[in-house]
Amino acid sequence: MAADSEARLVDIETKLAYQEDTVLALNDVVSRQQKRIDQLEMTVKLLVERIRQMAAAAEAASPMADERPPHY
Known about the structure:
By secondary structure, the protein is mainly alpha-helical. It contains 1 helix and no strands.
């Protein structure tokens, strides 16, 4: 009976060790993904701002570009 309990305990400890390793590995993956998401969000924000600036500059350069010519 004691050998059975000992074997079960070793089995449980082994499984726990593998689970801890898996949790740490998953945490590393999630951390890297979050860093990448943060970088991508910053890039998107910068691109959106640049597009707005370019649109404003284009509109200021030719404010009548969207108007119909007088002969219509």
